[in-house]
Amino acid sequence: MKSNSLPASKSLGAVSTITLAMVSLSFIGITTNQSIADDDEGAPVIGLWEPFAPAENPVTDAKRVLGKLLFWDEQLSTDNTISCGTCHITSEGGVDPRDGVNPGFDGIFGNDDDILGSKGVIKTDSNGEYLRSVLFDLMPQVTPRRSMSNFVSMYAGNLFWDGRAEGTFFDPLSGDPVAFSSAALEIQSLMPILNEVEMAHQNRDWPSVISKLENAKPMALASDIPQDMLDAITTSDGYPELFEMAFGDPEITPVRIGFAIATYERTLVPNQSPWDNWVDGDPNGMTSDQLQGWQTFRASACNNCHVAPLFTTNAFTVNGIRPNHEDLGRSVFSGTSFEDGAFRMSALRNLAIRDRFDHTGQFTMDEVFDFYAHRNGQQPFQGPNLDFRLFAPIVLSPVDEALIKEFITNGLTDPRVANETFPFDRPTLHSELPTENPLVNSGGSMGSGGFIPQMIAVTPPNIGNTGFKIGIDFALGGAQAWVAISSSPPVEGVVAQDELIGPIALNGMGNGDGFGTLIYPIDDLSLDGETFYMQWLVSDPNAKGGFAHSQVAQVTPFCSMIASCVPDCPADMNGDGELNFFDVSDFLAAYGTMDAAADINGDGEFNFFDVSDFLVAFGAGCP
């Protein structure tokens, strides 16, 4: 990896500080591998160093690939809709491109304190049933801060906007310390998985996370899977074997989940920007405008906080974007009142591919410059703890501002990040597909108060998903409801009652306040690729015919986005590509123990039909 560039100011003291830092790193046995360039005045500029990892979690490729799988697998959330990567999309600079609105401190939408946060999961109880959120109703909840970029996070001693992921990494199950230094990534990686806004239902625990991974088909919801991930998936039977490859045995633990995700993130070093190429000795690494912008940047007040090579100091500061009392930030965890309203300094790398900035997400690039220049109606709130450097406007000439913007936006963009090439490649998430599955159509029929019951269908219908569910909202509160299911398309907006599940007592009271959940496990392999339709029927005396109808959900179960549930050669029980006595023996053994491998027709039962199908497949041979 390329080296790290601690900024060098033009003073002798700054150069001495850099030299002392390099000597200190060498003394404790850490190799910096730094590339060093000189600016026009001879001051050294040092590139990104290789990230430090805890001694307890050395980097290995098997661990990296496992971490990459876990980071991008939406099945890590309780409802299969959110992965770690959902809020850290590579081509968006490692942040969330989705527009979610949190009403902010006052709890009222549509005013100045609204936060453009990250969408999470719909609020659910510990049984997976939907709950009405005070702020978000039965829509995905939104975090009260915008996601931070996960790039260069491996260089920070603590993570999140408020730095709450810091210190020793403790085993969440035993409470024992398992990593003592440089473990912020390990700590941070586990927090969203149990957070009931970001990825979890209420009271989610680690045993349930582990059980889900033990039975999940890795990356079943993703498509366009990078080759290193695909190789791992196709050469393993599931997550237990992947954990065995990474850790020596198949046990899945939260510590190992954290170790793997952190290892993957430590390989995402964005050190091939034009600026990095220039630091590495390429005199043409930056354009003349970018080089001028870099020189102008270093001489400006911007360089006080956004120090190369990270282009952040990782320090906490009060910049007055909003009044301190609305979000106390760092002080909640540090316990020091002088950090009320303090947040981590943002890094400037890869800003060209991001659209919104700061923890509130309220600024565009131009608005950031307006804010610090105190112009166009933008300026810091003059409250306690405001960084003294922001009392006066930071004024740049139009030419200097244009040069700095050119340097920041283009000189600091790593093309591998922008183009999502290795190691920044990633799969396409299920939530990014152009056609939704389930697909909810318009329609439905009115009930009391003129409300049309609304279908909630956001959980992907992957086969093996015992938590697949649909919900209903805007129905008559307290009413009885049923769900009609049919393999035939609806006729005039009504689904045939080939299967009718209910009655289900809806929650809520009064017109339009009714809501409920149907959990409908999908575990029949024969459904792979088959489409069926689901619709709620709500008993309502004021509805036509006594029933209000919801919209219709079109559901197409799938085994995974890259493979069918049915193997190409189902009689090849041992997977060696040949059919012989050993396959017959393995089938009989599996049949005798009711192993799923012997359920050839995938109907969940073991009977004559499986034996017959095996014999037919054996006779047909392998293609």
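[next item in queue]
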Amino acid sequence: MAESSRPAIDAEVHVLIIEDNEEHAQLLEKLLASSEYPRFRVSIVHTLAAGLESLQSGSIEMVLLDLTLPDSQGTPTFCTVSEVAPKLPIVILSGISDVTVAIEVVQLGAQDYLVKGHVDNHLLLRSIQYSIERKRAEIALREAHDELEARVQERTAELLEANNRLHAEIAERKRAEEQSLESNRQLMDALAELRAMQQDLVRRERFQALGHMAGGIAHEFNNVLTPIVGFAGQLLQHDDMLANPEIVRGYIQKIHTAAQSGARAVARVRGFVRAEAGVFGAMNVPEVIESVVTFTEPKWKDEALAAGVSIGIATQVDEVPEVHGDAAQIGDLLAQLIFNSIRSVSRRGMVTIAAENRGSEIAIIIQDDGCGMSEGVRLRCLDAKSCLAPQNGRLTGYGIVHGILAQHSGLLEIESQEGKGTRVVIILPTVIKEAPPVVIPKQAAAPAKSLRILVADDEPMVREVIQMYLAEDNHIVEVAVNGREALEKFKAADYDIVLTDRSMPELSGDELALAVKQLKPGIPVVLLTGFGELMNAEGERPEGVDIIVSKPFNLDTLRSALAIA
């Protein structure tokens, strides 16, 4: 989906700030007042009760909410506001820097979770804009789903009515009994086919819409990966750098900073179904289980002990055949189920992970002796539709589980009783599909000549990585922090090629590319974007763009793109 087709935000947005700290509320009001578009009309209240009263007016268009208020604390604060205003985007502004709380409220329906003291004007405005767009997409999806369900019911009623008429004709015209029975059978088959087609359409539209809602955060994460890949690649390729502690420490610090940003992006995006399938191949299930247990150890061991909880994890893995799947996604699925089990243990508990060979299937079993589930919660966790459409209450991440299993043709079984623990069984087919041959790309050669290159990107570390790469080949580089600055520099000097990010303030990459071509049609333009793979797969290329390069990229990728100059 092209960015130009996103719903426009209103010229003026009425924001309700529910914050008991007067100083922080005034700071937020000042930050919002600095926005030229959209403009914000701000109302401030200091208690949950006052906030609920303000919401009754019907004029509020979004909410900035503190979880810690004089008359309400923690997650229930969000749940109360969400119940009163289910159609409004809600962004959490909290002093609690807790990933678990952040994941929980996002799973419950919050559009974003920002930590006080770490919010600047750019981050706040971007979060509000993304939140409004995502909430509108979510409401549009729900309305489309309801409309589609109504159409299915209407068509079903018509078909059933026709079926009843056929039965009446059979009673009146017994001499045509065989023909009428055949017609009835065909009608029922058509009804079953219609239902299957409608269900498939609903499922695909829901997953597509959820992918678009997560697109903004996924783009942010691709920006984070670019400096990580770039700086790490430099250290691996240049042994002389490793002998310089100052360079090594500087690069590692940049990688660490980017990784922290990535962790925050992942925490926001994990509640959404992935927009596209991962890399499928022959997957060794015991290795995946061992890796997930090791990866989650800080959560079930160190953090748990710090909280006074003792949790043990044991594995009982038989010899099982390989499974065709995405090891990363199955790892995420198992990690989510392990975290669910951890949350169910109050003081001391045990989690057992087993794998069994069942002929044409394998079963992965996660069992705990925690608090268990009620029958209503168990049935809701088995319902993919309920898990992907959060209501009040805790989802425990089963929306993620259903999304991954849908891509792997897998099944989910849950056995649980309150006070007696939970047993979750994941069933995967063992059919191994022939993997496509691995193509090892040739290393791109360094260019024969030095180019004068204009680079536009609003991410400082991405600009630094690009400059580092281009310096390898002795190119002359001029950088701009947004599209508007890049256009002014392009008008003032001669360049051989333009490299531009797509999502930038002042002037987008699409607009910059078009302006460059209008001024000098012969100058190549390369678009660098986190949406690159999706755009190339769909054949989407904005006017004025010659090549699309997906973030993160490496030196060889950049060299190949520069070959058009």
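[queue empty]
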